[in-house]
């Protein structure tokens, strides 16, 4: 088991000031925008005022949701100016001095190598949690990469809301989770992460003796996949997969 942590900085929340973003967005008729706004860094309704017009366009939302966001921004700006400056003009503790982002590229860009240059290596920072049971912990993606993958998946899912054949987040593929999505369905996700996973496979050969270099592959065409929890779910129960093959399970936390 490999527990790969690459947690987004937006996942750090102060327990005394956690907002129910979904409920707040519902009051503005923005319930379909929860995922795409959360991945942009929005953690409470008033964070919408930091979205620029260019970012709203870049999210690719429909005209109705765009108008609802602009209306919500106007409402929040009015509240901001009407309220006491000392209590309302503070930066949200969930996003200290941090701008929102809707970028879906750039985090995985690598330098084009000349003939004799060596490929840049991803720093997995592997640590043994329990060597006897082959349990390790590391970091699969950087913070910027985690945030980009979240934005890519939510942007794709938003565009698939009315698609009954391939609906983005679904509960129809895997049996243990309520919301999941195959990475291959998200445009650009597999090509973006290919180098990182290739280097990870090479690293795994040194962690698990007996693995023939080059023999690691995905279990099936549905891997890798993304899973999303609603904040209350505890994940899947501990279980053992039965197979004639040796499996290495890697879990990467992208956001919270």
Describe this structure as you would to a colleague:
The protein has a 4-stranded mixed beta sheet with strand order 2-3-1-6, with no helix packed on it. The chain has a two-stranded antiparallel ribbon with strand order 4-5. The chain is built from 7 helices and 6 strands, in the order E-H-H-H-H-H-E-E-H-E-H-E-E. The protein is globular, with a radius of gyration of 20 Å. By secondary structure, the protein is α/β, with parallel strands linked by helices. About 7% of the residues have low confidence. 31% of the residues lie in helices and 9% in strands. The longest helix is centred in the N-terminal third of the chain and has 20 residues. Helix 2 packs antiparallel against helix 6.
Order of the strands making up the biggest sheet: 2-3-1-6
Count of helix runs:
7
- Using only C-alpha atoms, the radius of gyration works out to 20 Å
- Largest β sheet strand count, sense and barrel closure: 4 strands, mixed
- Strand tally, please? 6
**Helix proportion:** 25-40%
Round the mean pLDDT to the nearest integer and report it: 83
Q: Give the termini distance in whole angstroms.
A: 21 Å
The shape is globular
What percentage of amino acids are in beta strands?
Answer: 5-15%
Keywords for this entry:
single chain, alpha/beta
Short précis:
By secondary structure, the chain is α/β, with parallel strands linked by helices.
Topology:
Blueprint: E1 2-5, H1 21-26, H2 34-40, H3 53-58, H4 63-82, H5 85-88, E2 127-130, E3 135-138, H6 143-159, E4 180-182, H7 189-207, E5 225-227, E6 250-253
Parallel strand pairs: 1-3, 1-6
Antiparallel strand pairs: 2-3, 4-5
Helix pairs in contact: 2-6
């Amino acid at each position: 088991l490999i527990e790969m942590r690459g947690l987004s900085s937006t996942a750090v929340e102060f327990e005394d000031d956690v907002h129910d973003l979904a409920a707040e967005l519902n009051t503005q008729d923005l319930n379909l925008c929860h995922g795409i706004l959360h991945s942009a860094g929005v953690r409470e309704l008033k964070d919408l005022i930091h979205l620029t017009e260019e970012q709203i366009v870049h999210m690719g939302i429909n005209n109705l949701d765009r108008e609802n966001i602009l209306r919500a921004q106007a409402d929040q700006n009015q509240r901001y100016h009407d309220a006491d400056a000392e209590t309302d003009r503070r930066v949200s503790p969930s996003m200290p001095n941090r701008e929102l982002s809707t970028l879906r590229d750039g985090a995985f860009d690598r330098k084009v190598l000349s003939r004799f240059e060596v490929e840049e290596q991803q720093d997995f920072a592997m640590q043994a949690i329990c060597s006897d049971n082959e349990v390790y912990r590391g970091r699969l993606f950087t913070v910027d990469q985690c945030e980009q993958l979240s934005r890519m998946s939510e942007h794709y899912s938003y565009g698939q809301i009315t698609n009954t054949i391939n609906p983005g987040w679904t509960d129809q593929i895997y049996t243990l989770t309520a919301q999941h999505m195959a990475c291959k369905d998200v445009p650009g996700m597999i090509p973006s992460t290919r180098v990182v996973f290739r280097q990870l496979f090479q690293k795994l050969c040194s962690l698990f003796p007996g693995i023939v270099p080059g023999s690691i592959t995905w279990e099936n065409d549905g891997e890798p996949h993304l899973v999303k929890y609603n904040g209350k779910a505890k994940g899947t129960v501990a279980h053992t997969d039965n197979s004639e093959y040796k499996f290495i399970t890697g879990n990467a936390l992208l956001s919270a």
